[in-house]
Design a protein that fits this description.
- The complex is a heterodimer.
- Chain A has 28 helices and 3 strands.
- The longest helix of chain A is centred in the N-terminal third of the chain and has 32 residues.
- In chain A, 57% of the residues are buried.
- In chain A, 69% of the residues lie in helices and 3% in strands.
- Chain B is mainly alpha-helical.
- The longest helix of chain B is centred in the last third of the chain and has 32 residues.
- The interface between A and B is large, with 62 and 76 residues.
Chain lengths: 631, 510
């Protein structure tokens, strides 16, 4: 009996020298869960209504994450630390473990997740002040943080899947945080069901890998891939199915439709979950299983092409939005697509580098937007304008975020985006070996440049509509409190300098210590390509300035005519899903089944008529009894 | 040891004794009736816990705590009971859930009150259910199996609501219909069996596992009989139509026990009788059972989307969840059958909880129509609403809560079915089952939106009779809520029990 309650620990840390912090990295995801328990049961008794518990736990996790990253970096990368306990047995010779795989990718994700989570929790002290479900809000943020950290530390796919589903439910809970209004709960359901749709191929993909490798363990699967034990067909099928999950979670076409609606949640939630962390889980998944994808050119090409297609599609949508959060949401879809495309052309480190820089400036932009919304009580840029005067901190930090996103050197977004474009260009030019098709590399580069122009344009438009000109809203806006502007400045600082982590040609730079898929090649810059990127970005900003510096009475984009209509209607995709899939299943098919009385034999059998049942009973018994005597 | 031999007998018959005491009590002694019921089901619960403590986890594949005495010598039927790692969790589920039902009914009882009959019938029901999971003799099994029918019939017919007589009769006839065929199957096996020890026919379930019953065609007949008996009980599509009516109209604790325990008798029958006694036939039937399981999953989920009545919705959700259990069984693998037993326990506590909630909501609002109660129940009843959200999210299979493992492991097993089964076919089942999980998430979230979220309906806003969770509800529900979380985080608690027993069973198929 006692044995049941004790988990048998089987530690196989690969390095004795892993050190205390790396060896106990499991504390990082565990702490937020401890906080959840405290907040749920005792939160309201605390002076800060539980917020301080969440912030304290996340602070410790953050500190541990930073220590691990720094020690790994100083140690020149360091070994992959593996540790696991057996969770439960599964049949004769199988079992499932709970474990950790701590490598460069995990340590960088740890820092991203804990930093943004911590800043968002501090920011929420001001933003969510007086909210009727304040304590629960902090509990949910901590469930999310713990789950996300579990997702990135998981050493096996089942454990990763658990984190994956848990962040999904947290997203649902937080999008629908203000569930008194139906549009909010609609958005929450849409987000959950859309991503869940991608989770089914993901689950099947996990099963495919399991059926072939007989393990869920990521490290063992990767070893088997590298040893050539798994067939090409298996790997292609697995990679494409797994990518289905990534499409849902990272909001790629055709499952991107949930992310803009997810903006119904509180803005700090958008910054944390729907910009910096959860939505990058799909990108993380591809990076985590990069050897599986690399083994299949078809799968890589698919990743790259979906990425290329989505980045353009979403950037075009971002141009025509009035809701400032929706501009940022489509921008996020578009930027996640850059990361996917990078992975698709084989540039894993560039993709994760962009994930890293994007987390700072996109969280910054969302929190900045939240500060604006907090001041003007509206999401619509048509009711903003001139806020530069009223909100100097918000304005300056938002501007930094926008310039970083637009890709102007030396801000963070420039370096990572440029690395992606350079790598794609080189794959296309066949100057570096490609796992996928060189043509796809050229496509990614071409679409990437066009999207870079659009990105600079829509951010320029947003900045002008929000902060320049005259105020068009109601009341008198005011700058937000220090709990809100403080995190803005921290993120602005990171947006300024984070790009240098991946300075081209630096031997100990980002790629060297993250090493997605074991790749440590140092990226090199190409001055001509840099020049092209910068010119394109400046052109985008300039066009935005030209069109929106003086707020026009009529949006000049209306001149695009039918194309504008198409964009405003989001390519009619939502309508297609609603009319083509959701309503038929939810309303018509189910009603047809649910109210059907059955025909023919079924109706006869299920009439509820007692005499018929009795007759059928005797007839059946007689027949069966007769048959028994015959055999 | 004396204790080990009789502990199961106590668990099974203490409730029957309690029912006897209650019947002997004079009318009007309501407090005494309630106390007797609580004591009787409490004794059964304690016996269950003792059984757990005495259970040897080193050999879960063996029948333990056994008792084997002569009973009806003329036909060789024996009083033979015991539990292995498959039966024990279900026995524990039975004694726990029934105790909680009795506890709940101390304060909350359906009309027309009549506590004497009500409690006596619940206890009688408990004896039948606990006996079914412990019997190792087919005659004994059959007696317990049929014993369940009568109290449940009266619970629905007398304490039910709406079309209660119709629903009760439908339940009775359907199950009777199935069990007659099952009995024929039992008899056929009996007459073709030879007990190597005595040279006579035998009803011993362990001996019957190693018998040949004749030609494949004859064995198919037997399997058909067993299949009808078990599949109606589960219930699998297309034998499910009794379930929404019975559930919808049964009193609260009737629904809890029906969904929480009774349905598992069917799946248990497959695992305990059909599979090990007719393994070769099971391999041939498995693809069809798998198909019906997947249809049940999808059909149940689609039906849920159409339901306007909260109890019928939960009832249809049971069809889907039991479909996952049957899919696990149909794979004939250790993973699948482990998933099935886990799924049975998880469904027992989660759906039991959901029916408790549905009952308590009905008791306050006097309606079961979702759109009449909601929206905004979470504002009106914050605790009740939160518990409902928690249970619904558990039921849709969120990892970390109990509902997840049964589903995901069943799908995993379907992806890797036993030798002799078609992999492509079962993989298609896995994909379709996966689609079922999307629909399941859809209808539960939609239910929460319509019932829980939004502004309070004006009609209820100031109704003082609608009160939040009461102490008796806290007491009866807490163990289930804790269990939902505990089994989700620590599935080993069940899988450690089932593992050895399931491996032994899976040995028939590999």
């Amino acid at each position: 009996m006692v044995a049941v309650l004790l988990a048998h620990e089987e530690a196989h840390a690969t390095a004795q020298a892993a050190g205390f912090f790396a060896g106990n990295a499991w504390l990082i995801p565990a702490l937020p869960f401890v906080a959840v328990g405290v907040i749920v049961f005792f939160g309201k008794r605390f002076r800060g209504k539980g917020a301080e518990v969440g912030i304290a736990a996340t602070s410790i996790s953050w500190l541990l994450s930073v220590i691990i990253l720094v020690t790994r970096y100083v140690g020149g990368g360091g070994p992959v630390v593996l540790r696991s306990v057996r969770w439960f047995p599964l049949g004769r010779d199988l079992g499932l473990g709970l474990g950790m795989r701590l490598d460069g990718l995990t340590s960088i994700m740890f820092v991203v997740v804990t930093t943004v989570s911590l800043l968002v929790q501090i920011y929420s002290l001001g933003y969510m002040h007086g909210d009727r479900r304040y304590t629960w809000y902090y509990a949910a943020l901590n469930i999310f943080t713990g789950s996300m950290l579990n997702l990135v530390i998981a050493d096996n796919l089942m454990q990763l899947l658990i984190g994956w589903e848990l962040v999904g439910i947290c997203s649902y809970l937080l999008i629908g945080h203000w569930w008194e209004e139906k549009p909010n709960s609609d958005a929450a359901i849409k987000a959950f069901i859309t991503t869940k749709t991608g989770d089914i191929p993901f689950l099947i993909g996990v099963f495919v890998l399991f059926a072939a490798a007989r393990t869920f363990n990521i490290t063992e699967i990767i070893h088997q891939v590298e040893d050539g034990n798994l067939s090409h067909v298996t790997l292609t099928a697995a990679a494409i199915l797994l990518f289905g999950g990534a499409i849902g979670k990272s909001a790629q076409f055709p499952l991107h439709v949930w992310l803009p609606d997810a903006m119904a949640g509180p803005t700090p939630v958008s910054a944390l979950i729907h910009a910096a962390t959860m939505v990058t889980a799909g990108v993380f998944l591809v990076a985590r299983l990069f050897p599986v994808f690399e083994a299949s050119p078809q799968a890589l090409n698919e990743v790259a092409l979906i990425g290329a297609f989505t980045m353009l599609l979403a950037a075009l949508l971002a141009m025509v939005q009035d809701d400032i959060k929706r501009v940022l949401a489509y921008s996020t879809v578009s930027q996640l697509a850059y990361m996917m495309a990078a992975l698709g052309v084989g540039a894993g480190n560039a993709g994760i580098f962009h994930l890293f820089t994007h987390a700072w400036f996109k969280a910054l932009l969302f929190l900045g937007a939240g500060s604006v919304i907090h001041a003007v009580h509206s999401n619509n840029m048509s009711e903003m304008g001139g806020l530069r005067k009223f909100m100097p901190h918000t304005y300056r930090t938002f501007l930094i975020g926008s310039v970083a996103l637009a890709g102007i050197p030396p801000l963070a977004g420039f370096w990572s985006k440029d690395e992606i474009l350079t790598e794609a260009f080189r794959v296309g030019a066949r100057t570096i070996p490609a796992h996928g098709s060189p043509v796809v590399g050229s496509i990614v580069y071409g679409v990437g440049i066009v999207t870079a122009f659009l990105t600079a344009f829509y951010m320029s438009r947003a900045v002008h509509l929000t902060f320049q000109g005259e105020y068009r809203g109601h009341g008198r806006p005011h700058e937000s409190p220090a709990t809100m502007t403080g995190p803005l400045w921290v993120l602005a600082g990171l947006s300024l300098v984070a790009g240098f982590a991946g300075f081209p040609g630096w031997q100990k730079g980002f790629g060297a210590w993250v090493g997605v898929g074991g790749e440590t090649r140092v990226p090199e810059a190409h001055l001509l390509l840099i020049a092209v990127s910068v010119v394109v970005a400046l052109a985008g900003i300039g066009l935005g300035r030209a069109l929106y510096a003086r707020v026009p009475a009529r949006d000049p984009l209306l001149r695009l005519g039918w194309f504008h209509t198409l964009l405003v209607n989001k390519y009619y995709l939502d309508e297609f899903y609603m009319r083509g899939i959701v309503r038929p299943i939810r309303d018509r098919v189910s009603a047809a089944i649910g109210t059907r009385k059955g025909g023919g034999i079924l109706r006869y059998l299920q009439s509820g008529d007692v005499q018929r049942y009795a007759a059928a009973l005797f007839a059946g018994v007689a027949i069966l009894a007769f048959l028994f005597t015959k055999f | 040891m004396m204790l080990d031999e009789w502990v199961l007998t106590v668990a099974v018959f203490a409730p029957l004794a309690g029912a006897g005491v209650i019947a002997a009590l004079p009318k009007g002694r309501e407090a005494a009736v309630k106390m007797s019921a609580l004591v009787a089901s409490g004794v059964a619960l304690v016996a269950g816990v003792i059984a757990l403590a005495r259970f040897d986890f080193g050999s879960t594949g063996e029948m333990q705590l056994g008792i084997d005495k002569g009973w009806i010598d003329s036909i060789g039927a024996r009083y033979h009971m015991g539990v292995d790692g498959i039966a024990l969790p279900l026995l524990l589920l039975t004694v726990l859930l029934t105790f909680l039902c009795v506890l709940y009914s101390q304060r909350i009882m359906p009309k027309p009150h009549k506590p004497k009959g009500f409690f006596a019938l619940i206890l009688l029901l408990e004896t039948g259910m606990a006996g079914t999971f412990t019997a190792l003799d087919l005659v004994l099994f059959f007696v317990f199996w049929e014993l369940v029918l009568v109290p449940m019939y009266f619970l629905i017919a007398v304490w039910g609501s709406e079309r209660k007589e119709y629903s009760a009769i439908k339940f009775f006839l359907y199950t009777l219909f199935g069990s007659v065929f099952m009995l024929l199957g039992f008899l056929a096996m009996y007459f073709r069996s030879v007990d190597p020890a005595t040279g006579k026919h035998t009803f011993d379930m362990l001996v019957l596992q190693h018998q040949a019953f004749g030609s494949p065609a004859f064995e198919h007949m037997i399997f058909l009989g067993l299949f009808l008996g078990f599949a109606i009980k589960v219930p699998m599509w297309p034998f499910h139509t009794w379930l929404p009516d019975a559930h919808g109209d049964a009193p609260t604790v009737g629904s809890v026990l029906l969904a929480g325990i009774l349905l598992k008798m069917g799946t248990y029958g497959f695992i305990r009788i059909a599979l090990p006694m007719l393994p070769e036939r099971a391999v041939e039937w498995a693809p069809y059972i798998g198909a019906l399981a997947v249809i049940s999953i999808l059909y149940g989920a689609l039906n849920c989307l159409a339901q306007k009545d909260i109890k019928r919705l939960i009832a249809f959700s049971s069809v889907g969840h039991m479909g996952f259990v049957m899919l696990g069984i149909a794979t004939l693998t250790d993973v699948g059958i482990n998933a099935a037993v886990f799924g049975m326990v998880a469904h027992g506590i989660i759906t039991g909880m959901l029916f408790f909630l549905a009952g308590s909501v009905y008791e306050r609002y006097h309606t079961r129509v979702i759109d009449d109660i909601g929206p905004g129940m979470l504002l009106k009843l914050p605790r009740m609403g939160a518990i409902l959200a928690f249970s619904a999210i558990a039921s849709l299979g969120l990892p970390g809560l109990a509902g997840f493992w049964g589903e995901v492991l069943a799908l995993l097993a379907a992806f890797n079915p036993a030798r002799g089964l078609s992999s492509p076919l079962f993989r298609a089942y896995a994909v379709l089952g996966g689609v079922g999980t999307i629909l399941t998430a859809g209808y539960f979230l939609w239910l929460l939106q319509r019932l829980n979220l939004g502004q309070v309906r004006e009609r209820w806003a100031n109704d003082p009779h609608i009160d939040d969770v009461r102490p008796v509800e806290v007491a009866a529900w807490s163990p289930l809520l804790v269990g939902i979380l505990a089994l989700g985080v620590y599935p080993r608690a069940v899988l450690e029990m089932t593992g050895g027993a399931v491996s032994k069973l899976a040995g028939f198929f590999s």
